[in-house]
Structures are given as C-alpha cells and as structure tokens.
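Bench log, entry 3. Co-assembly request; chain sequences pasted below exactly as received.
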Amino acid sequence: MNESVKTSRGALDIALAYHRTWSQDAFDRAMAYIAPDIAVQTPAGPLQGGEAFRGFMGQFAATVEATELLAAYGDDARALVLYDTRTPDVPSAPGAELVTVRDGRITTMRILFDQLPFALAAGEVVPATAHVE
Amino acid sequence: MNESVKTSRGALDIALAYHRTWSQDAFDRAMAYIAPDIAVQTPAGPLQGGEAFRGFMGQFAATVEATELLAAYGDDARALVLYDTRTPDVPSAPGAELVTVRDGRITTMRILFDQLPFALAAGEVVPATAHVE
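Structure output for the full assembly:
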C-alpha cells in the first residue's frame, strides 16, 4: 500500500485502528496513530503533545483487563468512539473519544470518562458521609 | 406528515431532535422522544422507565445554562452524540449518549459523563487532602 493510499484512510478507520491496537496491549504501537503535536482535552484538563498523551493514556491502558467497543462512527475528518473497559479498580469504565485525523494520525482528541470511581479507588476523594459519625 | 413517515425517521434524527428540545429548556417536550419503557445506563447505575429517566435527566437539564453539540453520528437504529454543557456548578460538563431508537422513540440510552465535579460541588465527596492537616 503506497503512502497516498495509506494517508487517505478516513478518520474512523484511524480511530478504530488506534483503539484496536491499544486495547490489544500494544500501546506503543498505537502511538503510531497519534500525531506528535496532538492536542487532548481530558476530564482533568488539557494535554499537549504525544509524550504527555503517552503518560496519560498509556498508563491507563496498562491497567486495562478487557475492552468492549460499543459504537464507532465517523467521516473523513472526525470520528466518535464509545467503548467500555474493565480495570482492577473499576469493573466498568466507559470512555468516549472524539478525534480529528490528519494524514493518518490523530491530531486532536476530546476524551470523556467518569473520573469519580478512579478518584475513589485511588483515595484522592472520600465520601463525605465517611466523616459524619 | 403521516405516522408512517414520522416513525421512519432514523435514530440520528430522533437523537438530535431529543437533544435540541431538552437543550432549549423544553425537557417536558423532549420526553416525547423517550419510550415509556426506556432502559438507561448512567455512570451511577441503571434506570428503568420514562419517569425514572425524567427524574434523572430532567433535573439535570433544569440546571443547564448552555449546551454545545460537539458531534453526532448514527444510522437507522443507533446514534452517538457528544455535547458539552455549562451548569452553575460545573462550567464544562460534557456528556456522551449512545441511544437506540424504535418507532421514533429512544428505547435505550447509555449516558456517560464525569460524575466527579458534580459530586465535589454537591459535597458528596471531598478531596482526601482536605483532611491531611
């Protein structure tokens, strides 16, 4: 497959290839689909660049025991993917990713997940009721 | 428009009509797109039926000051929508909804949002560091 064909793949194809690759315990290979200057919006704030993204998503991916792709849609420029994950601390942790793709790589990602079960599991927050008595 | 035409609308049309309606301060009218026996998965757990859904989503919708539709895709049976919301307590609270539609109404919804800022704002959880000193 020559480069012109490769780079003409739509955003959905790239988003799915990225998802398949990291969810098969191959986060390093999945980084091939991430632009070096990726701009990411996470629930905890913005991240800039591939290495920041690797620190965020790679760390999470390493804890994932199972993934299930729930839905994926897109067009040439953007894709929206919803998946579920299972981790030791959180049995069901779905994520949604809206990505834009340019030249076969993800250049922006808005990722959405529920931080609460992770923050509770990590002891970063505690239920207010735990301090009542 | 007769009933047969109305009920042939694809899932994306219905999901967008539902979104537009509730985000225009018309949650009661938006309930016209919700099946009475809707099955909902929320980050806090499952909900069953239109009245349970109204209690959950209607209460939230009443607090929303602004919405922005970020992406919406779908086909005849399912749609996936990502939007951002602004509420008094949480300046940016995006939500993702995967819905299935039958006969012009949403019969299942998997809704994803970050519970953490809402739980902090409501005092349901507190940062663990608040108890260090």
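Helices of chain B lie at 3-6, 11-23, 27-30, 50-61, 116-121. Chain B is about 30% helix and 40% strand.
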